[in-house]
Write a structure and sequence with these properties.
Length: about 140
């Protein structure tokens, strides 16, 4: 396998583990990702579509399904009524925090067969990749 193949299979492994965690909370991976992306602060729908790599239409459909479960709410921005802000409801916040905590606890298990030095290297590289991507929890919209 070449490098691209290995990255592909690493992605599959991570996605599978994440999907298992989400299913335990009766959420799809996309619903959980959406909740975790807005758990700490409301975000603009346009920002979320770009950050999650979704079309605005696909995001609206995801939000519709998640809103029906009373996990998110939409509101017009106070500064510009054309801008739609998405935030978690109290129920969504509890669920997002639980999924996020469980994910950060269990996802590192994908590297459990690596020695301590390799695990630290993976952590350092994963941090560098995420930081360079411009997508992180601290990015405001």
């Amino acid at each position: 396998m070449d490098y691209g193949d290995k990255l592909f299979w690493l992605s599959v492994l991570i996605q599978r583990r994440y999907a298992q965690i989400c299913a335990e909370y009766d959420l799809t991976s996309l619903q959980a990702t959406l909740l975790c992306a807005i758990k700490d602060e409301p975000r603009q729908m346009a920002y979320l579509a770009a950050a999650l790599g979704m079309t605005k239409n696909a995001l609206s459909q995801l939000v519709d399904r998640t809103e029906r479960r009373d996990l998110v709410s939409r509101a017009s921005s106070e500064q510009d009524r054309r801008v739609i802000m998405l935030s978690v409801t109290p129920t969504g916040k509890v669920l997002a925090e639980a999924v996020f905590a469980e994910t950060t606890k269990r996802l590192p298990d994908v590297a459990e067969n690596l020695d301590a030095d390799d695990q630290r290297d993976l952590e350092r590289l994963a941090t560098a990749i995420v930081d360079a991507s411009g997508v992180s929890a601290s990015t405001s919209s």
